[in-house]
Amino acid sequence: MIRVDAIWLACEPMDMRAGTQTALGRVVKVFGQARPHHAYLFANRRANRMKALVHDGIGMWLAARQLNVGRFVWPKEGNTLALTRAQMDALVLGLPWQRIGEAGVITLV
């Protein structure tokens, strides 16, 4: 439905009360710009909630996800990371996405 060519993860937590404009401001601050067909992922401090901001070339989409049990596997160090589609699919399920390689093969880290 929405084309996403690149997926970016921000390591620093974001307040989940943020709406679309606040999330867009955070994207510009952290990533420098909001590019069309890119998705930007943020989590709260406890890493049990996530928001994704997607620029579809015309406007912005903001989606939220919450895990009722457990936490998202969120990096504690660094500023930003690029994710593959397979890694994002694992991340939103709360799985250890860092172990998924480019071909979807699970590797030991």
Low-confidence stretches: none
What is the count of distinct domains?
1
Choose one word for the global shape. globular
Strand content: 25-35%
Question: What is the spatial order of strands in the main beta sheet?
Answer: 4-3-2-1-5
Describe what this molecule looks like in 3D.
This protein is an alpha+beta fold. The protein has one domain (6-99). The chain is 18% helix and 27% strand. The protein is built from 2 helices and 5 strands. It has helices spanning 20-31, 85-92; strands at 6-10, 38-43, 49-55, 60-66, 80-83. A 5-stranded mixed β-sheet has the order 4-3-2-1-5. The relative contact order is 0.21. The mean pLDDT is 90.
Describe the structure concisely.
The protein has 109 residues and is an alpha+beta fold. The protein has helices spanning 20-31, 85-92; strands at 6-10, 38-43, 49-55, 60-66, 80-83. The protein is globular.
Q: What does the secondary structure layout of this molecule look like, with pairings?
A:
Layout (H helix, E strand, L loop, with lengths): L5 E5 L9 H12 L6 E6 L5 E7 L4 E7 L13 E4 L1 H8 L17
Parallel strand pairs: 1-2
Antiparallel strand pairs: 1-5, 2-3, 3-4
Features:
109 residues, globular, alpha+beta, 5-stranded mixed sheet
